[in-house]
Design a protein that fits this description.
By secondary structure, the chain is mostly helical. It contains twelve helices and no strands. The longest helix is centred in the first third of the chain and has 10 residues.
């Protein structure tokens, strides 16, 4: 006989929302985790399984539960560009800014260059200068990945262009490492200094 938790994890991983709903109705735990320590909501959000996310949210899964790396459903949905899931999670109370030891959903959205999610999170009060555990900001991630439109959104929001991470690098340094002259000029126009 299979473990009910395993059945639930498999159903979530395969986006079988009706099966997830039935297993939860039979006493399954909406906050169960898989063998890697990933909460069900994190799995569904990462995979873009919107219907399963809705079932788990309706079952009151902990919206800010994190995996062992500190990633929440919101941060991984932002990284993967799942706009509808990001909006659903925030509507259900997901915090747009994580505790200091975690990467923010905004940093992840900036990394992937998802401007719609970046705008949405900023409109919901995300701290545009919130640094990751190693001091890296959303601007730095957007610059590193050469997402010009994302950089423009962050600059228009008034981010700190002079911020340096734990290694002493700034967004301008990252643009120079990429040999991205247009980005260097864009950052200098915004006030970045050598």
């Amino acid at each position: 006989m299979s473990d009910p938790r395993d059945d639930l994890v498999i159903a979530v991983a395969n986006d079988r929302a009706d099966t997830v709903r039935a297993l939860l109705a039979r006493g399954g735990d909406s906050d169960a985790v898989d063998a890697n320590g990933d909460p069900l909501l994190v799995i569904a959000a990462r995979e873009g399984s919107a219907a399963t996310v809705d079932v788990l949210l309706a079952a009151r899964a902990r919206v800010d539960a994190a995996n062992r790396h500190g990633d929440t459903a919101l941060s991984l949905a932002a990284l993967k560009g799942h706009v509808g899931i990001v909006k659903a999670l925030v509507a259900h109370g997901a915090k747009v800014d994580p505790p200091p030891q975690h990467w923010s959903a905004l940093s992840y959205a900036a990394t992937s260059g998802n401007d719609e999610i970046v705008r949405f999170l900023l409109a919901r009060g995300a701290n545009a200068d919130l640094a990751s555990p190693n001091g890296t900001t959303p601007l730095m991630m957007a610059v590193r990945e050469s997402h010009e439109s994302t950089v423009d959104i962050l600059l228009a929001h008034g981010v700190d262009v002079a911020h340096r991470n734990d290694n002493g690098a700034s967004a301008l340094d990252w643009a120079k490492r990429n040999d991205d002259r247009r980005m260097v000029e864009r950052l200098k126009r915004a006030g970045a200094r050598d």
